[in-house]
Amino acid sequence: MTSLSHNITFFLSLIIAFLCNTVSAKDVDAVYSIPFTNQSGLIVIEGSCNGESGYFIFDSGADAVILNSDIYNTDTLSAASTTEFQTLSGKINALSTTVSALNIGGYVFENEPAYLSSLEHLNGLAQGNLLGIIGASFFTSEIIHIDNLNKVIQLYSRDSKSRFTAGKRTITTNIEIKDDLIYVPLKIGEEEHLFMLDTGASVSMLDSRFHAKYSESFELASHSFEYVTADVEKMDSEIYQAPDVLISNLRVKEFQFGIASFTALADKTPVNFAGILSIEQLPVSELLLDIESQMLYLIL
How many whole angstroms separate alpha carbon 241 and alpha carbon 229? Predict the structure, then answer.
């Protein structure tokens, strides 16, 4: 059973209104390792921005670098223009800027584009100075490897993949990429639907329209929970569970979901989009993303 145990869970999904530039990790034939910690069900990476030390939330549901405007402002960073972001519960505005030195897990990038937005109500989710949010698309690497056992994100070439999967039970599934966001097919009942894979969510969520259409596939669980989004402090949801879901041939029993309206994202998601899939709820020890080949490897 994959239960929602947090009293207050966290959900981030930021979709920028246009495609942003990506940052290439250099020499991806080597293996780059970025340590992380799990805090409030999220992947948190230590780093710094323009000399200010703190932490970034690693969010595969974000396709840009978002800086906390409660730390950085137009007095410390020059702002060029206002950009509109789409989130779960509506739109927020952010100021575009350029960061002279961005350090993520020990790797330094210079003169990188970023966006300023208030993250004040998320500060308590990271045990330290919350600098911002960073998306998976920031790292252009053939393989992005999230190792939950050793608490490290590794970046390396496709040729190195066998070194990390040899002798391990691995399940493979196709994924779909749209606007740098990753969608995983889940089979619920007799049909397959796409869920956005989100490292910035500590709970999986069903689109309320999808739930209404396929309500017979879910049963109401006995408790509810509160969650926060990037722009709203707290929202409430009931918890529903599916008897089982299938990701390729990985069967997960009694998988639980919250319910939320994704109407605001309708024109930015695939037609068969059904919700958000949190990696926190997957019974896997490691996860490998091959963006170019659009493959996901789950190591049990």
Answer: 22
Is residue 197 domain-resident?
yes
User: Tokens 């911002």 label which residue?
Assistant: 132
CB < 8 Å & 24+ apart, contacts of 223-227? 225/4, 225/6, 225/7, 225/8, 225/9, 225/258, 226/7, 226/8, 226/9, 227/8, 227/9, 227/10, 227/11, 227/203, 227/258
Residues 69 and 137 both lie in one domain: yes
At residue 77, the 3 state secondary structure works out as: coil
The amino acid at residue 133 is: I
pTM: 0.82
Query: Domain total for the chain?
Result: 2
The position carrying tokens 């939320």 is 260
CA distance 201 to 221: 20
Q: What pLDDT, in 10s, does the model give residues 104-129?
A: 887 888 888 888 888 877 777 767 78
